[in-house]
Amino acid sequence: MKGPRTSVPSLRRRGGRRAVIAAFVVLAAMVPAAGTALGAQEVEAELPYTCAFPSGAQAVTVRVAARFPDSAAKGEAIVPAEVTTTVELPEAAVAELGAAPGAEVRASTELAVALSQGEARAEASWRGTAQPATVPAEGPLVLESAGDVPSVTPGSAGALQLRAGGLELAMEAQASSATPGAGEDSPAPVSASCTLGEDAPEGGLLATIPVTGGETDGPSEGPSPSEGPSASTGTDTREPGSADAPPGRLRVEATDPKDTPPCVAEEPTTVTLTAYVTGYSNVQKLDGASLIPLSCMVIEQGIAAEPGPNDEYLFRQPADVELSFQGRRQTPPAKATFLTYGFVPTTATMVLEQTEVMRLESDFYLGDPVKLDTAIRASLVLRLSDVKVNGTPLDVGSDCRTETPLTSHEPEPDRFPGPHIVLDGFGLAPWEGQPEGYQLTTGGPLTSEVTIPAFTGCGTSEGEDLSRLFTAAISGPGNYVKQMQGQTCLIQDLNPDHCTPDGQPVVIPKPER
């Protein structure tokens, strides 16, 4: 990737400015902070896989390493630590990249991990990114990816087993020249879906963790995630956002319990819902896609409207939606870590601030299947802070943000004036069979194509205005967003499959590209 060429008086300052510009890729390069877990069960499994490359299947060796606790208690979040997924591509598979020796290869992996405990089943996705590797003149190419992975909370006593499953591999090679000419364009990205070999040792078993029942068989007596430390027992050791798994079930949480924000409605009514949402966002100018942080939505359902003109729709379900984080209408502050221009480590913190109530409308069209057309209109300002380049703080001021909320195409501008984005969801609900796509209560994908406005307030303590540089590097149209909403929790009902006892959603959605 190349940033804009800006005339500045100093090479040192130029590097700092460019790093600041790339720091805004927080919208497109989200990597949660590393989780920690104590334990002494070291695991390194070498597993055979078959990967479906564009030209055909190739045998690939995958090594999965991690550290787990020796044991855990029922209701205790288990967080795998020091997780790496190493993919060794044979020479024939390296040829799929179409890159000459010396070219750099960047890669990401997504390993499906099956969780089982008695009759309980769940699946977690272990995602990782690899440091750039150089294509060898001959022999295999080794790509080692690392990243934070979801925790799992067992709801019962008994052995918890983790087994490796399918692997998704994405790779992109860059031309070996530092400044490729017209004839040295980088090859197209290559992706492959890989299946575990039938001869994998112990069926891909990674770890077995004994889980004890604790002092009682009932739910935890400690304070709920929305409460503070217990006055009688001292500091509550559970992290914010954690919750006991229902008995006999496994709760798969975000990459670290800290990354699962509490999701509690402060003054719920009989129609209040809570839900988690996450996803991926592209930044067109940076040609990148990344994770959007897990966020809490509180949804207040309205009164369904009458059919539209000429029975255009069966009925319309409105709702007001609020982001919720520590009493504020915003996403949790999300720390991003990435490599600026491929070699300068950069971190930053991003927050999306809601400026108006989000308006949701779901139209139900009669038929078999019933068609559901949902639009969520959200006014969100993007704010950036705490930028560090190669570990050195870089001052961008306390009010570095977009001038206006993000925008997208609005099909009804007279009804909905002002800057905002429109997230669209489509679903089908047959009279018999399972529904598909998005529905308000069950969740699903919401998509949009967003324009990032110009920036303002991005300045140093020395009075240097960096807003134009952010605008030149980042702002513009064509930024695809895909968010996944999880199953809602109807607080009035507290269905244990959907809700924790204090009305938080049980389902943590899995982001999809």
TrEMBL record:
InterPro entries: DUF6801. The keyword Signal applies. Residues 1-33 form the signal peptide. Residues 212-235 have a biased composition (Low complexity). Residues 49-200 form the DUF6801 domain. Pfam families: DUF6801 (PF20611). Keywords: Signal. Residues 250-259 have a biased composition (Basic and acidic residues). It comes from the Bacteria. Residues 172-265, 396-416 are annotated as: Disordered. This is DUF6801 domain-containing protein.
